[in-house]
Amino acid sequence: MSHNTIDYRKTVGVYYNANIVVVGGGPSGVAAAIAAARQGKKVLLLEQSGTLGGASVLAMVAELMNFDDGKNFISGGIGREIFKRLGLEDHRNRGWHNIRYEQLKRVYDDMVQEAGVQVLFYCRVVDAVCDNDCLQSVIVSGPNDMFAINGDFFIDCTGSGSLAYFAGANYEYGDENGNTMSATICSLWGGIDFSKKENDIKHYQKAYEDGVFSQYDSVLPGIKKNYPEIGVGGGNVGHCFGVDDRNIESLTDAMFHGRKILAEYEHYYRNYVAGCENAVLIKSANFIGIRESKRIICEYMLNADDFFSTKSFPDEIGRYSYPIDIHPMTPDKAGMAGFSKSVSMHHQDGETYSIPYRCLIPRGIDNLLVAGRCIGADRPMQASTRVIPCCYITGQAAGSAAAVCVEDHTSAHNADYKKIKKYIDSL
Question: Euclidean distance between the first and final Cα of the chain, in Å?
Fold first, then answer.
């Protein structure tokens, strides 16, 4: 996207000061803010929308992935607390859990307020002010004006790595050619008889041959029974290919395309899938579900070799287990085969990988940590660590570490790991 430049300058007021500023109110941001606040720190949590929850609610992602490894509960601490408050059942079978969106919002609301976190909705961070290797302020666009927020320490939980990028951190993006896996506009559906519903993909090939679909996309996670008692489910159907979440034109095109293909799926479900004869597309998400974005260059880059390693890093902040879930890159049989190959990389029951504190520390910035989808990882590992129960793990670790750094007046690089681990274990 080519552009000219103008010289734009503006003096803004400093409206808030905090020990720790967390940017992004998704699962990692919620966990980070709560962890830091429970250590007695003044925490400010900034969210661009009017609700906490991130992709779970804004992009209407219908499920929470596994909290366990088939034998052990591994998303402990704040993750376990959220799990219990949602009333989920711990079967230790790597089960996925369907989301009731309003319930999840209220759980997050209650937990951040109980911890004493100050939340500011409708705040979008648009820049950062740094002095040498230290981040001093974030510049925020609010409903009425732009302003600055000062902090002693900052945590990027934006998913897209925006704050780290504004602060000057380097990043990797996509594959060797900069291409990313597909995104999805999730949706809400009614009129489903889940007691009779067939497998979502069962008649896909026939429908494609009949001309129902404008693109070939046989990877269909489907409609999940979030509210089966009233025939309502969350839909993870259809992919938008070639989306670059750094580019507003690419995102705009994807939103148009995603809504168009949802109409095709409505026709498919009503005419091909038993139990869905009365299916109605109630709503599509206002935010596209981005699976792949910036991977911030950190002190350690978690990599595919670590996925099957049995070692524990000396600075381990948690363990997780989820496949290398790289969704199709192209709308053809080769793209579908690529997805099948990637998800075949998974653990056996009881197997996990270790996550080090160092993959939360962006290189070259003293008082910034990252958590959630943008942590230091290569492409295959981001495809595993990006899911919500792992975001709780990296989020609570970042919040605990930030609290330690503020207390000890030290940089993220020199933080006392034993103290960080103690704080994590206390959650």
Answer: 45
